[in-house]
Amino acid sequence: MARVYVSAVMDATLEQAWGFLRDFGRLGEYHPFFRDAYIEDGRAADQVGCVRHFTVRDGGGFLREQLLALSDDTHRCRYRILHIDAPWTHYVAEMHLLPVTEGDRCFGEWWAEFEVPAAEEAAAVARVADTFRTFFACVDAEFGRAR
């Protein structure tokens, strides 16, 4: 089983970072790896069970992900991949945010576990880690200069 863990301190408050990252349907507006993101069937982007559909910019096909949990109290969300144009299975990821009181910033951690053929594991882990790091960098880009 492949495992990925990425953490970062972001130059945004907890409220800013959570408000930005909790929107499950907004991905295509800011993440440079993806485009054309939308929530299927007109469901709300914060409704557990909703499915996000988006296209990978580098020609990597499309993905469908289902929101499994979202908590505004603990600043966590969990989701799974329903479809990916890659030989990955049983992919589940979770993102969690915590306040950093020094400097009024935010700590984020994001992890995933999934099955992938052994020969492709290193590349898959690097790709997922880069994707998570970029999410955190997008928060910095959105709020870091405004503070």
TrEMBL record:
<dbReference type="Pfam" id="PF10604">
    <property type="entry name" value="Polyketide_cyc2"/>
</dbReference>
<dbReference type="InterPro" id="IPR023393">
    <property type="entry name" value="START-like_dom_sf"/>
</dbReference>
<dbReference type="InterPro" id="IPR019587">
    <property type="entry name" value="Polyketide_cyclase/dehydratase"/>
</dbReference>
<protein>
    <recommendedName>
        <fullName>SRPBCC family protein</fullName>
    </recommendedName>
</protein>
